[in-house]
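**Backbone description:**
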Amino acid sequence: MSSSIRITKPHEIVERALELSTTDGCVVIADEESSANLRWAGNALTTNGVTRGRTLTVIATVDGKEGTASGVVSRSAVTADDLEPLVRAAEAAARGAGPAEDAQPLVTGTPASPDFTDAPAETSSAVFSDFAPALGEAFARAREGGRELYGFANHELVSTYVGTSTGLRLRHDQPKGTLELNAKSPNRQRSAWAGRSTRDFKDVDPTVLDAELAVRLGWAERKIDLPAGRYETLLPPTAVADLLIYQMWSAAARDAVEGRTVFSKPGGGTRLGEKLSGLPLSLRSDPNAPGLESAPFVIAHSSGDDASVFDNGLPVPATEWIADGHLNRLTTTRHSAGLTGMQLSPGFGNLILDAGGEKSLEEMVAGTERGLLLTCLWYIREVDPATLLLTGLTRDGVYLVENGQVVGEVNNFRFNESPVDLLSRASEAGRTEKTLPREWSDWFTRAAMPALRIPDFNMSSVSKGV
C-alpha cells in the first residue's frame, strides 16, 4: 500500500502500522481525541472551543538471546506518510535497548471489539445543549444574589484502538466531563468552589451548584481565626477521592514486597490481609460500574511499576482492593504477579469507596458537636513514601461547625496526613456518591466516595492561601 493511498481511519492506521512492522512483535495504539469546552468569568461566557487530535503509539518487541527488548515511540498528528518512520523508530529503539525486565508474550485470545472498524466517537458543542441554558440561568441568579461565577466545563472523548501482531483488535470509547464552578463575593474577599464529574453533562445542573455556593458564601461572612492543631474534621467526597487516588498510585505489589511503600510489612513481606480500618470499608474498581465505566482491557502506552506495555489488551476485571476494612489486593502486571506470587490485578480506571453509610454530608454536619468542614484539598505532595505521609493545603472554604450548625469560615491550613492512617482513624463514613477529585482532575475523574469523619485530622500549620 503506497502512502499516496489515503489512510485516515484509525483502524486503517493501526493495520498499516502492523503491516510495516518487521520485528518479532508489535503493538499499535491509536488515540483519537476530541474535546469541547466552555469558560466563564464574572457571570458571562468568555470562550468556547472544539479541538481534535490523534496520537499513535508503536511498541516494537525484539527477541534476543538474553531476552525480549521493547521500543516505544509516540507521535501526534500522524498521517499515512508518517507511519513508516514511526514504526522504524520504535524498532530501532527496541534493537538498541537491553532486555525488558517486564517482558512477557504479547496477549492473545481476547475477542475482537465489534466496532473496531467504526469511525471514532466525537464530542462537540452539542454536549452542552442542555447545560448552557442552565448556566445562563445560574448567571442571572448569581447577579441577583450579588455574587460572581467563574469556571469552566470541559468534555473529552477518546476512542482508543489497540492492534497487535498476535491478532488483538480492541477499541474503547472513553468520555470524560468536568465542571468546576467558583463563586466569589464582589470584593473578592469570599470564595467557594464546587465541582462535578460527568460523562455527558446531562446529570449536572449549574443552578444547583450555584445555590450550594451561595450558602457557603453566606457562611464566610463571619471570619474566625483558629490555630494549627488536630481537629475533628469532615472530609467531603472530593477530598477523600484525592487522598485515596494517591494511595492507589502507591499500591504496586512489587514496591511493597521490596519494602519501599506503606504497604510493606516491617521485617519483610506485605500488609495483605491486614485490617486497615474499623469501618467495613470496600475500596474497589469495576470497568462496568454505572456512570463510571472505564476500559475493560489494559491500555499501556509505557511500562512502569503498575503497568506493562506487554500487557496491552489484557482483560481488566472488577477488583476489590480493600474488603471489609482489610487490605485485599495490590496492583500487579503479569511480570510483577509472577515475581511476587500475587494474583494478577491490573491497574484501575475508576475507584469506588463504600462503607454502607447512608448519611449525606449535610446530615453528618448536623451530627457534629464541634469540628471543621472542608471544601477541598490542593497542592498535595508526598513527604514520606514509607508511611505515605502527604502534605497539602485546604482551599476555597474551611468552616467551623458547632452544635450541628456552620457558624463561620476559618483560615486555611496546611495538613500532614497519610490516607492509610486516616482510614484506620475514620469514625464514620457517609453515603457514597460520584465526585470530582479536584487535585487530580486532569488525570483521574471517575470516582465515587463517601464523606469521612476524622476525629483528629492534623492541621499542621496555618496557611494564608485562598
